[in-house]
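User: Structure please.
Assistant: Input sequence and predicted structure:
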Amino acid sequence: MDAVGTMIEPSPSVAAAYQAVGKSHGLDLDRETIGRRFREAIAKYSVHGFQTLHGSEDPLRTNDKSEVARWRAIVSFVLSPPPNLQDEVFQQLWDHFGQADNWRLYDDVSPALTRLADAGFRLGLASNFDGRLRPIVEAYLTDFDLELFISSEVGWVKPAQAFYQRATDSLDCQANEILLIGDDWKNDVEAPRQFGWQGMYLSRSGRPDNDAISRGYSTLAAVADALLES
């Protein structure tokens, strides 16, 4: 399963967190502006975009150092702190999103995982995140024996075929035995299917990000129902 948007979400919201840190340094931006800038920054500084801007021959490669640099660029784009505040503002936000208290598990996650585990499914997370995901998992998902595949540790981000290959090799099974559930059509459905995995689309907002999607699910509970009925 994917992590952010599928199993967990920031709490408070990204815009609220950026606004609070910004205000503490005299950067008074409203949440609407922050939200708009954040979306623009994520598009501009996606891993692919960030690596391309920096001349990488492998734009889907990543590591911990690269993720720090990428998120530093995102924070600077969103809040535009003066040079003397850039390091402190970035570090506060980096640390904020590494604390489990600033995330919440969707209400249907634990019951759904319990049902799937009881039915014999082997569970795991495949996420475009970094090492900060581990303490979040430890805080909320200790009841489940999850295999973790985190892009900064794998060395590749979804939708790189190498990401799915590394996970497949680690799981020691056939590609068609693996199902990825997530809220990103390309990363969690289309690309893994091309590699031979199965994929199921989850859109908690109810707004699919691809017009070609004919069927999706709005909750993880609904996904569990479909899997257990099949």
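The mean pLDDT is 92.
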